[in-house]
Amino acid sequence: MKPDEVRVLVERARGAQQLWWALGFRGRRRALHSLRHCIVWKADEIADLIHRETGKPLADAMVGEVLVACDHLGYAARRARAVVRPRKVSTGWLLTRRALVEYEPYGVVAAITPWNYPFLINMSALASALAAGNAVVLKPSEATPLVGRKTTELVLEAIGIEDLVACATGDGSTGEALVRAGVDKVLVVGGRETGRRVMAAAAEAPNGPVPVTLELGGGDAMIVCADADIQSAARAAVWGAFYNCGQSCQGVERVYVEEGVSRAFIEAVVAHARRVRTGDEPESMMGPLVSDVQVEKVEAHLREARERGARILLGGRRIAGLPRFFEPTVVVDVPQDTALIREETFGPVLPILKVRNVDEAIGLANDSELGLSASVWSQDQAKARRIASALRVGSVMINDVLINYAVPGVPFGGRKGSGFGVVHGDDGIREFARPHGIIEPRVRFAAEPYWFGGLFAQTRWARAALRLRHGRGVRRVSDAWRSLRRRN
Ligand code: NAD
Asked: Cα(118) to centroid of ligand 1, in Å?
């Protein structure tokens, strides 16, 4: 789409936003629930479209995208009023004043989304942004334009406000044009380099700097302690690394397992990984990688790791006769400073590294430029919590993987090179609203004591007020009184 066309979408969305805002909290809640119900009725059609456009298994599309999307819409619809309605706040020492904070929508939000969970990520962005009262111009990935268009069709059908959610199809240049087209807020879900470019464009936009939320890639670590349920951890590692063909931002990218149990864990992982059925039938467990470029990246990361001493225990090759299909791959003895560990591989590769103890595992997990999420495996919940708190990532799962994107009340976002800001949860709704403070008189005086010429312009009154409010314990009143009697 050309920049002029994108600008027209933004202008129209601005008009639609006013109709949306005029509906009030109740009207918007009803509308978001209608959207959710509309999705449920059309679930088969939507899942089929996702399957055809991405190649992912039908069941994954139904559960991992459609069901979770409905959950996020339901949560945002239910919570929006409580989260962004005006609230009273303290005025501190200004006792004659009353203060409140209102939350107002930004206006038009640009949501730039990737292909790996095309429907879910579109809907999770819409859930928070619409619940906060915004209109949205969506820029879906160039690899999944049909799911992008379907998203806007569903909104129109269920809510009935034309242009409330518009769709700007195209590649990165369309995304950049959208950022510069006068939008009020940008959410980008994508790679780290894209995040940098979007930030630069948002800074230079004619109405800029435009605020951005960056949801970028991850290099998620899984820590397996010696007291973990090894069979369960192994099954989860296989699911977390190979679900969606390893193309999940919060997928398991590296495992650190304590030496004492590493052998049993690795054997169990290989046994479970052998059972992953790969293919292009709707009921397969693992589908294809998104592009030849992605296949080449996976091969390059594996090649370098092998040259540096890593051993491939399973897989490691393309599947003959099926373009872009890659075998589920398990690798051990991978040095920490290889691209396989330090970068996001985004393919069906599970590197396992042995560590001497938990401290070493925490150190290596944190030794990354990325910080999206992580998981900890131990049967001692209190110990697992302590490890979780030491990990510098946005969220941590204990004895599970991947599911943090599917829990609607938990904010999802990264640290370091994985971005900043959040989607989901109450914080995710507030991410799309700006606070607007209002301070008004409780009691009116012709002149306030802190204005020029007022009581507090005299040092002794100012000192007395300070002591009265912030002095220590019961001495506050007598201290204030004493300071009043001082001349200055
Ligand atoms: P990508 O960065 O190539 O593209 C993402 C979107 O940004 C696409 O719509 C693309 O057209 C657009 N884009 C690209 N360059 C742009 C530019 N200069 N200006 C504006 N828009 C631009 O990512 P991808 O390959 O589609 O998706 C995979 C990446 O997304 C992985 O790194 C993955 O980890 C990440 N991801 C992150 C999350 C999260 O919530 N943190 C979720 C899913 C995927």
From this structure: 11
